[in-house]
Fold this protein.
Amino acid sequence: MNNSDLLTIKDLTIDFSTYDGTARVVDDLSLCVNRGEIVGLVGESGCGKTVTAKTVLGILPRPPGKIVNGQILFKDQDLLTLKEKELQVIRGKEFGFVPQDPMTFLNPVFTIATQMFDTHAFRGSLDIDLLQYLRVSRDKNRRTEAMQRALEMLQKVNIPDPDRVLQAYPVELSGGMRQRVLIAMALMEKPSFMIADEPATALDVSVGEQINEVLETRVREEGISVLYITHDLGVARRLCDRIYVMYAGDIVETAPTRKLFEEPKHPYTLGLLKSVPKIYGEISRGIEGAIPDYYNPPQGCRFHPRCPHTMAVCKQERPALAEIATGHQVACYLYSQEKRAK
Amino acid sequence: MGQHPSSLRRYAMTNLLRLSGVPIGGTMKRPIGDRLGITGGPEAYRLEGWKRAINRFKRNPLSMAGLAIVIGLVLMGLLADYISPFPMDAKGRVDFVNKLLPPSPMHIFGTDEVGRDVLSRIMFGARIDISSAVIVQFLVTVVGVVLGMIAGYVGGKTNSVIMRTADVFITIPPLVLALAATSAFTPDISTAIFAVTIAWWPWYARLVQSVVLSVKEEQYIEASRAIGKGPLGIIFGDIFPNIVSVVTVKFTLDIGMVILFMASLSFLGLGVQPPTPAWGTMISEGKYYLPEYWWMSAFPGIVILLAVIGFSLLGDGLRDAFDVQLEE
Amino acid sequence: MSEPLLQVRDLKKYFPITGGILKRKIGDVRAVDGVSFDVIRGDTLAVVGESGSGKTTVGKTLIRIFKPTEGSILFENDDIAKLEGNALKNYRRMAQMVFQDPTSSLNPRRRILDIVMDPVNVHEIGSRRERYEMVARIMDRVELPKDFLYRYPHSLSGGQKQRVGIARAVIMNPALVILDEPTASLDVSVQANIISLLKEIQKEYGLTYVFISHNLSLVRNIADRVMVMYLGRAMEMAPTKELFTNPMHPYTIALLSVIPTVSDEEEKLLPERIKLEGEIPSSVRIPKGCRFASRCPKALDSCSLDEPALVDVGGHLVRCHQLEKNA
């Protein structure tokens, strides 16, 4: 965590209160994204990565979510202390988001052109009323300017026939095409930071590959920092500069990509890597046990019930994320005796 | 009506729910644990859905209020003979000396134009109104569900025929339909029941048909076909549980509406005949004496309102409590 | 032990498209457009492809969720493509399916007990007591605690639900099990678990699998033979190890090249990354000539003239004009 940080999350703790009690879905999580980096947040379903992403964007539904503790520093401003209006401005002007399912983010009854125009014209504006909307939409100059930009962006994401796509409705486009449109929309306002939530997961392998490549090229070109969320270690390895491995609401290991795959340390990381089916024909039996009950999490290290190397101390207190080599941190008593500060 | 309304309703609900596999106490098959001696003991047999549903229901004050009102009204009707101050007033006694008395400690709701105690008549009226509404609902549900399921599952021409027939019945205003039916036959309670049934069934058929249509495309239906289940097995085994909660809720919610509707029919003189008390008839008889002798129409009207509210709250509460998917 | 359990010949499944006011047929979606293969008893055949390849349709046609438009499916020497009525119901005892999405393939309003017991009830296998015993045994085998039987699907995790799906498919001890991307919606660690379970069950019960997937590294770990499909036709078929060490068809090579790997060693085993341009054409308007030509990095003009046949090239069956020379 240093001065070239764009986004820093510190000790974020989020609770969800439901019918069955209170679940601590994110527990004391810290991570950072530097300028110009693609940082991977890797974890399986239920680990809290989407909740974290939504909290950064400020779209976590609360209630039932509740931010118990923590800071989210973006360019040295704590997003959690901002009012909704101020957050909207930052969200509009600085953040980009590429979702997992393109269809839910595109309004089926409007053409791509309309939606891209709206994004361009109203990004970062506060509470637009109907009159204002109509006035701006009818403004010919703004329309032309926006359409120019839209075409430009569509070309940049390698859409072969941008005019046709602009006039189309989302249902007329394939999944890969829609995702490209969303990337284009995210890039349109030259954000400084982007969150990509499993953008290639819902697509075919070859199409997903294209999407990831387009995304990577464009963000590297503009120097956009990206938090890339995925459950696929292989994809993270291809795209990301640094990776955070998340389990049960917290980071268990983080390292520069090469290091993580060459010298994985945390038992969960090891378990995950072993579970990935290999081309030379090897697949493990998975990781014993199941994700913890967030309403009643295990004491101490949240992974200990599933860990083959559990020791007494693991059951009592949570290990801290300790640095064992440059840039490589692990939260595990096998490597460090540091305990989490209370 | 010989049937006690509450037992009728309970019987209907129990069987509907049981058919769909919702675990209900009593005649449930013995737990597999017991049979195989593996998990052993009733503790292992968690009637999870049932217990949770009851808890949910209890937790909601509105649902409990609805339940209280309904139970209150039903008990009122059942025990009318014992708790009404002037039971004979509902059975034909007249007392011209005491006619048109305003509400007083002796006659809490006052007396009507022939001296009968309004409160007692309201209590007896509960029998007619509630039980006939339940019977109507029962008939309507059976007809609507069967037709709706056939229409939804078979599709094609059968669907068109059934749905268009339903549409015809829907387009005719229910009151007109009911009037036509009752004028064709002698006006009494069974005619009224028949009339309301034919006016009401299309809504159920439509509801069921739309649920069936949406469920039909689900993958678990495909899975059932892959196992080798025939259409009947799929309709009753797989699709039916999906419509149960919807239909049960509508059933309960509508009882209130049916009471209202049948009261309208009685108001027009097409239902129950004097001297048997029914809330609608009472309002009708009292309308000539408004506004000075307001209590004769007002109190039955208030009770109808109470019944509708009670059943609505109960129905909503049931839906919230029982929908398995809502538990997520 | 090497007689084929299943012999599929020239299987076609078209879905008619109707249009206009009169709902006349204006075309066909040719989901499966002529596929032939054998499956040896006890083996696992993987059917691999992306969306639009027709792999799921093949699977569903094999268990007669769909009726084939053309072609024959010989199961133990009976053509099940033509079966109806009771004969079809009997076939269903022998061939079952594990569906892709465990959440939508289990009826949310029914208890696990009812779902797992369904097959033996439908086919009236054994007495009532025996059926309960079969359910108890299969729950043990898929490593699910028996008190899950009284729960509803929504209170189970994805992996647990899929085990229920497997229990349902296997409880009757069928001969053939079609697995339609059974782990696609599951996490990596859960996937590994389920795949191990499937492999163990296959050995124990002597099952034959047709494993449909788009995940090639998974296929590498479970299949004996692989069939790569594109736009309704097979492009390459070979024993698994062969396919991975010596892929021939350009599509196969492209698919292999984009597999995300987790180590350098693995990466070295795969072909150089090939970026396929464009997207898969629509199954309504199948291109003339080789179906893959529009995206093939090695395509020549002559490839779009007529469709290549599936020929044997060094033990692989490939459908490619340029490889035909090496047959």
